[in-house]
Queue: 3 jobs
Job 1
Amino acid sequence: MKDVRETMSAATGEFVSPGPVNMDVPRPGSATRLSGEDLALLTQWAQKACQLPAVREDLVRRVKAEIAAGTYETPERLEMTVQRLMEDLL
């Protein structure tokens, strides 16, 4: 069983983890049954996802402003990018 249960706090918009949910992987071809509580949680996630903007406009504005100001590409950011690429390749 994996501890993957998270809910989004209405006050902060952050995800919080109230406890474990049984997420055992079903065998191919077998039916998956959700408990009423798990189904309610899935419904809540789906409703929150529908309310999210397709594009994070605040992030796009900030990145555009940083690019225009010449502050987006820093040596630290490039180093982090290279490290992540190397991790993915290895």
Job 2
Amino acid sequence: MLRRDVSVTATGPGSALVTFQAGADNGATITGFTATDRATGRSYSCESGSCQLNGLENGVRHSFTVVAHNAVGTSDPFGCFG
């Protein structure tokens, strides 16, 4: 469901933009995405190919995984490092 095209860009103090390109939907429309901060375990819901993440702790090296959701299930996670 999700391809490995995942990247992260700092957008200001305590914030980042995670972008990704959805892959094949495996026969069911993708209904959303979840980006998870591997440093804190906090998850963010996303509707499209980008997630604006706010409230990140400064001075911490954050890395993120992204999964896609649809009626078929949840994709394997793909990650990026910030």
Job 3
Amino acid sequence: MAATWTVLVADDETTARKAMRKMLEKLGLIVAEAADGREALQVLQQSQADLVLLDARMPGLDGFAALVAGFSRRCRPAPRGSGPPTTAPCAPPSAGS
């Protein structure tokens, strides 16, 4: 049986999280969600992730600060021991922001 990968999606935009969830679940992945960096760190204390997708700009603890706060120490190590792959997708600011 093939291993199932878990992806943590951290984004303050509910619509973005739902879109990412839908796309990732179609690929057969398990998806965990967080609304900001602090919540993402809490999720990772309770479970593990193989991939972390962080919004770079979020209120409170943003994606960059979450990386500094220790994502690599809280996630399952990648096969080469370098920590889970992490990316920080970032949408341009909304009009009026």
